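Please, structure for the following, as tokens.
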Amino acid sequence: MAPVLEIQNLKKSFGSFVAVDTLDFQVEEGSFFSILGPSGCGKTTLLRMIAGFQKPTEGKIYIRGKDMSVVPPNRRPVNLVFQNLALFPMMNVYENIAFGLKRQRVGSAEIEKRVAAILERVDLSGYDHKATSQLSGGQKQRVAIARSLVLEPSLLLLDEPLGALDLKLREQMKIELKKLQADVGTTFMYITHDQSEALVMSDRVAVMNEGRFEQVDSPRNLYGNPASRFVAGFVGETNILPVSVTSNSPLMVMTAFNLQLEAIAVTDIQQEVDLFVRPESVILEPPEELQDINRFSLTICNVLFDGSNTKLLASVAESDFELTVALPQNQQFAHLAIGDVISAGLHVNSCRCYPRS
């Protein structure tokens, strides 16, 4: 099956500044594809080129195999949902959703049928005559998405649509958006700087930095096998320890804070590197029988209570370097307090090194 979206050698420059730098990728039919990156990395510029609001400096955009080079925005089979939603305040829910269909001169009976169907799909049946001012933030979000989906686009582009919502509603909407996309089957292309949104909702995620994709992968592989220092630091929480490499065969041997640590060997590694360690990778009181474990002691400096996500801030061995450690959810170590010393370990497979920037 041909991809819904195919990008070839796409580049966008503003004078000497390159906002999007030679991208090549595809988005498959019916998938949830996210682009994750910091502000200013080129995400929105890429989205606006796909929608037709900006012209590429170089490269091609194909939607369902058709070259979009000379197709204006209003003729492209895509719809865009913005962060501010852009609902019409003078129109009720029905009128907002029906607006695009009326512009396409669809018959009134067909409009009623399609609006009713999409309201049911976004769980807003019976809301058709409500004013948008009477809706909650999540309901407004669903109306904005319904207004786009009712036009049956090949591709729905979403530019940080949850950014204006409060934290609890944002968490709820992440789940709703994922379920909605799976239900309607429309291909979603989602832009965000929030790693949690990208990891929770997406089938595939592209991590973007300075106009380029650092890695395009499944959320699980992005988190577990980051391809670059930037991905390792940007996706998920991580501790970064400065280390010196003393040997690289068959295992990499490093020294840090008078400790000798081992990790999986990496080719072309520099002597001065940084060790990246996820908070949940630190094993507290590792059993003696565990193999391939780097062992050391931790002194508890602080307990960061957050319910099931409680973490420790602890200094490594006798150094001043503090490590963030995720506590297991079984409450086994709930008794730990500031000043306690506890044995800890890191499996060699959990230790990833990248050249020091």
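The chain has two domains: 5-234, 239-355. The radius of gyration is 25 Å.
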